[in-house]
Every structure is written in C-alpha cells, then in structure tokens.
Amino acid sequence: MQETSRQKQGPQGQKPDAQRGRGTHPRSHCICSAGCIAAAGLIPPDATLYFDVVLLDVWNKADTVQVSTLLRPPHCPRMVQDSDFVRYHYNGTLLDGTAFDTSYSSGGTYDTYVGSGWLIKGMDQGLLGMCPGERRKIIIPPFLAYGEKGYGTVIPAHASLVFHVLLIDVHNPKDTVQLETLELPPGCVRRAVAGDFMRYHYNGSLMDGTLFDSSYSRNHTYNTYVGQGYIIPGMDQGLQGACVGERRRITIPPHLAYGENGTGDKIPGSAVLVFDVHVIDFHNPADPVEVTTLSRPPEPCNETAKPGDFVRYHYNCSLLDGTRLFSSHDYEVPQEATLGANKVIEGLDEGLQGMCVGERRQLVVPPHLAHGESGARGVPGSAVLLFEVELVSREEGLPAGYLFVWHEDPPANLFEDLDLNKDGEVPPEEFSTFIKAQVSEGKGRLMPGQDPEKIIGDMFQNQDRNQDGKITAEELKLKSDEDQERVHEEL
C-alpha cells in the first residue's frame, strides 16, 4: 500500500475507486439439493438448501482502471500529466455504494503529485488527462488499490473502489507564467517594461472559475509599479510587454503566486491563479510630455508660443482608454492662459509652447506633469492624460516682472506727461488716463490676459511708494532703472 502523509490519516490518502460496469447488490436465490455436501450437525444428508445472495463486488485480474467523464468544461487550458501537482475533491465508495471517505468533509481539496508514488496506482492512472473543472468517475480494481489487505476498517480486502472526482486545478513545479492575449488594440507603439507605473482592472479567479477578487467591484483600478516586487512575481512578469488598452489572461502557478500557504480565506494553498487584466494606462516616472503634430497652418509660421505669451486654445481631454474628461468646446469659447505662469498643468503648458497659431497637436501628459497621484475632480489618481489642442491666438507676453512696456523708448519727460494738470503730483485718475492713451495709440502694451484696470492699479501702487495716493517726481522710477540700481547695490 502506498500512502501520503494524508493517506496515513485515512483512506482518502490513496484515491482509488474501482467501480465496475458489472452490477452489484442484486439478490439471487440458490437451491442446493441432493449431492450437496452436508455440514456435520447442521445440514442433514440430502437436504435442499436455499441461499439469499447479495453481490458486493466483482472484478477480474484482467481489469484496468475504468474512467467515465461526467462533465468536461468547454475550455481546457491544460490536462494532467505525470509529475503534475493537482488539487481535487472526491467522494470515495465501495462498489456497492458504501461511502468510505470524502474530501468535502475536510474543508479543503486533496492536494498531491500525480505519477510520483503518492497515490494508489489506479488513482495515478485515473487522473491523467483531466482538465480543471472536469468531473470523472474512476473505478479501480483492488490490485490497483489496496489489494488483499484493504485499508483499516473502511476498505475491506479485495475491494474495488469508486471515486467521483472534481479537478480544481493542476500545475507543474516547472511551470512559468502563461499569457493569452484576449484583445490587442491596433497601433500599439509602446509596451510596459519593468519600472513603469501601471493602472489596470482585473478579475482574479481560481482555475475552476471561482472568483476571489475583482477591481471592478471597487470601481477603481489597481495602481502599481511593474517589475519592482510590489505585486506577486507572476503578475510582475505577466504585465510586462502589455499595451495600453490590451486585455490579457495571466495564469500564474502557485510558486509564483501565494505558494503552499495561500492567503486569506479565498486563495487556498498551492492554488493556480488566473487574472483577466485590462490595461488602462502606464507611464514611467521619467516620461516627458509626448507631442505629436496633427496639422499645421498652410502659411509660414515665424513666431511660436513661448513662456509669458497669452494664448487662447481649444482642447479635448480624455484618459488613454478613451474616457472623455473635459473639452473647451462645451463652453463655446477657447481656454485662456499665460504660458509659464502656473495657470495650467505643467505638461499642458509645455505642450502648448512652440505652437503656431492654427496648429493642432496631440499631447500625452504623464501624471507627474498633470494631477499626480491624487488626481483632481473627475481625474483619477496617477492617470495619464491625452489632449488634442488647437492654438487659436497668441499675444506676445512681457518680460518677467513687467506689467507694461513701451514698444520704443519711453517719453523723455515721463513725469511731466503723466502730470496732466501740471500740479506736481499724479493721482490714480491721471495715471490711468495716461497709460490707456499709450496703449490706444500703439505706443505701449499691458500684460496680456489680465484685467487692464487691475494691472494699471498695480502699476500705480508700485510707483506710489509712500502709499499716500499720489505719485511725485521723486517716487517715479522705471523698472529698468530699478533693476539697474539693484545691480549696483549687488556689486
């Protein structure tokens, strides 16, 4: 008798089941008349004897293991071979239907190697070729089971055994991660590598289809680095090489998952795991903004948008899986921003720079140049954003720190020109009137994209150094003169 450590606890250790096609349990009547040998003191000579017979078992030395497939799943990822490790449930009975053991009462599957001497010979043979999820009836003659000795008090000598088996999963210690592409979007130009950060949805199940976890139930992607040891080794391997939008099935043997101990109450020890994954997006922390020019205006473009410029642009923003987020077309007016002024996310600001008026671009913005790990209203954390932008107009900006500049040299007698009533001081009204006249006459320009009244008010406050509500000749200084004074002070 061959036993595993579990078999030593009872007949469930050796999994033989030898039910045969021959019937058992029929009662027959046997009559023995003259010629029967009398039993001394019990049967008189020439007595006719009647026997009621119940056939409990029958087998022949030429018998082999009999296998009947009761249910075979439509999808069979692999079949049991010698040296495989299997997990299965079983009910074991004698040929007359008497139950002697069941795995269902133990709270777990029976786990063992096949073809390695851990099982009785008949069960080793009967499990070969099974698919996960398959149900079989296996009948094992006694010489391939427990033979002349039987097993304990539950399996008599010379007993044929019958097992009803449900195979839960199968793997081999030499197995690697198995990949199956379920859907590959066209135009995959980049595949995930170790070090990338990925957002993906998944359904996780055991090999028999039992679901143990799903990101969809939480309405949130699973976000992690790939190939950095943050997830089980099999998933670390299985996600590499995936494209954005790809759906793939990742089958992971237990030695690349949760091993012999399993985890929690849903993943048993030595379980093969099957993940159906949908890759939403991925990026690398070193990624820059990816810029693709969709169209350019037909006329030559000599000037492009740069930091400080005030621009108007239309945009559509979505996630990489096509989920629409925002669009300026919803408001029927272009978006406005001063480039380099931290008015828009950094990646969009970079992507708008260098554009010609009328140009259209596609921008792929990684999260560290967008809304980061926390996301924003309507934007998931760590999301890569896809923009389609069109530059509608551009106004040249002013040098850093300037609110107003003259196109040519400023007036030679600036204070006298500002002092409209020639009383030796310039109140806000005179200051505003003068600046607006300079702009309307094309002699100077204010910082674009801002409220002119506010800018002029800020300019006045800058010149009214004692904050008494008026500017004197002593207070008035051009910014270029102030900057020059600072240089001398530093020197």
Automatic annotation (TrEMBL):
Matches recorded under PROSITE patterns: EF_HAND_1 (PS00018), EF_HAND_2 (PS50222), FKBP_PPIASE (PS50059)
EF-hand domain: residues covered: 406-441, 451-486
Top-rank taxon: Eukaryota
Segments of skewed composition (Polar residues): 1-12
Keywords linked to the UniProt accession: Calcium, Endoplasmic reticulum, Glycoprotein, Isomerase, Metal-binding, Repeat, Rotamase, Signal
Reaction(s) catalysed (UniProt annotation): [protein]-peptidylproline (omega=180) = [protein]-peptidylproline (omega=0)
One GO CC term on file: endoplasmic reticulum
Classification via InterPro entries: EF-hand-dom_pair (IPR011992), EF_Hand_1_Ca_BS (IPR018247), EF_hand_dom (IPR002048), FKBP-like_isomerase (IPR051989), PPIase_dom_sf (IPR046357), PPIase_FKBP_dom (IPR001179)
Domain PPIase FKBP-type: start-end pairs: 83-171, 195-283, 308-395
Residue numbers spanned by region Disordered: 1-24
Gene Ontology MF terms in the entry: calcium ion binding; peptidyl-prolyl cis-trans isomerase activity
EC id: 5.2.1.8
Annotated localization: Endoplasmic reticulum
Protein purpose: PPIases accelerate the folding of proteins during protein synthesis.
Name of the molecule in the record: peptidylprolyl isomerase
Gene of this entry: FKBP10
